[in-house]
Amino acid sequence: MSATANRPIYLDNHATTPLDPRVLAAMRPWWEENFANPHSIEHAMGRAAEEAIETARAEIAALIGAEAREIVLTSGATEANNIAIKGAARFAAGQGSERRRIITVATEHKCVLESVRDLAAEGFEPVILPVGADGLLDPEALREALAVPTLLVSVMAVNNEIGVTQDLATLAALAREAGALFHTDAAQASGRIPLDVGIGIDLLSLSGHKLYGPKGIGALYVRRRPRVRLAPLFSGGGQERGLRSGTLPAPLVVGFGTAARIAAAEGRLDAGRIAGQRDRFLQKLRVLVPDLVVNGHAAQRVSGNLNVTFPGDTSAQAIMAAAPGVCVSTGSACSSAAIEPSYVLRAIGLPEDAARKTLRIGFGRFTSPADADRAAAMLGAAWIATTTPHAAPLVSAE
Questions:
Q1: Are 106 and 128 in contact (CB under 8 A)?
Q2: Distance between CA 155 and CA 342 in Å, rounded?
Q3: 3-state secondary structure 184-210
Q4: Which position among 334, 337, 338, 394 bears the catalytic label?
Q5: Which of 69, 104, 280, 361 has the fewest other C-beta atoms within 10 Å?
Q6: Distance in angstroms between the alpha carbons of the first and the last residue of the chain
Q7: At 362, which helix (H) or strand (E)?
Q8: Angle, helix 369-386 to helix 250-288, in steps of 10 degrees
Q9: Burial class, 249, CB count within 10 angstroms (exposed 0-12 / middle 13-18 / buried 19+)
Q10: Tens place of pLDDT per residue across the chain (398 aa)
């Protein structure tokens, strides 16, 4: 959101997006007026809640070119990724499939990498492919890995740190040619780039809070024809085609559906406007920090992303501390008490020292031109203030 009433400028839209006011308005009645369990279809309030969920399911499906009955509602993309990867592997093994190879990419979200690695204990063969310095997977590397009979390929649509967009159509075609299922974690892609499961995607994960919807709700697309079969992760009442038992949270589902509908209608305009804010910000920041480096492919990236490495001897943490009025992130993960450089940045070949000087900056629907200008000035001034004098440019912060 914009920096009003002393509120910081929010530029961390990869971590989460603010709830669109229209989404909140759509959700409110399902908390305050009709709070019924959507599975209590014996009475009118329950049936109304069920109908609202099915409307939302159709809205979510429309965003990715799917059928409503192909959408399995979950608590978020982490759960959806786990169901897709572990569910596909365990179902295939239970059917006697001899395919044991599961392929993914070194820059995937932790939940994908850990899901794939966890399956090694069940007799599967995890294969983690590298990316280039631009963050992209070489299709030839995937082709070579698929020479061994493969059960599943999982490749993220948009990277959550460096924002690069993978060539899903090409990668999905290679997987299909090799007889493997193709899954994509599209949490960072939905609402930001066009998505169409018709290009050969078998499984696709979504998260509500990445497209201006509520936290705690997500979805897994499961292709119906030819049918993809999965084993559920846990037992229960058999909701969501038996793949995800549990009472559905009607307000969250309605909010997710509304956010998806808005994204489908406004996503292209959003992307153009957001790209303009990002480019405006970068131009102004480079006046103050001339040797700033942008990580990831220059053009094949989502519109709102910048992942930048600062020159000199300061750290990203120091810059953030010196600019508390701007909400950005380092792209680093906390391990115990130590801050370790991001594994994504290491995967694209950034030295540890450079990774520690890198910020992830995410622009969104509610970023204004004034936000972009002020944030650039504040981060540039913070870098100047925290860098040794010989490294600071002779430029005014105005």
A1: yes
A2: 18
A3: EECCCCCCCCCCCHHHCCCEEEEEHHH
A4: 334
A5: 69
A6: 23
A7: strand 358-362
A8: 60
A9: buried
A10: 445 557 899 999 999 999 999 999 999 999 999 999 999 999 999 999 999 999 999 999 999 999 999 999 999 999 999 999 999 999 999 999 999 999 999 999 999 999 999 999 999 999 999 999 999 999 999 999 999 999 999 999 999 999 999 999 999 999 999 999 999 999 999 999 999 999 999 999 999 999 999 999 999 999 999 999 999 999 999 998 889 999 999 999 999 999 999 999 999 999 999 999 999 999 999 999 999 999 999 999 999 999 999 999 999 999 999 999 999 998 644 333 346 789 999 999 999 999 999 999 999 999 999 999 999 999 999 999 999 764 444 443 33
- Calpha distance 353→360 (Å, rounded): 16
Give the CA angle between residues 202, 203, 205 to the nearest 5°: 155
In this structure, which topology does domain 21-262 adopt according to CATH?
Aspartate Aminotransferase; domain 2 (3.40.640)
Give Dmax (Cα) for the chain: 74
**Does the annotation mark 334 as catalytic?**
yes
The H or E element containing residue 171 is helix 168-177
- Decide if 155 contacts 130 (C-beta within 8 A): no
What is the strand order of the sheet 305-309 is part of? 293-294, 305-309, 358-362
* Contact predicate 102/154, CB 8 Å: yes
From residue 84, how far is each of 17, 89, 101, 112, 153 by CA, in Å? Answer: 24, 8, 15, 10, 11
For the record, the structure tokens of 162 come out as 């460096």
CA distance 188 to 58: 20
Give the C-alpha separation, 145 to 102, whole Å: 10
Residue 176 tokens read as 């299909």
Domains in the chain: boundaries:
9-18+267-391, 21-262
CA dihedral sign of residues 386, 324, 370, 264:
positive
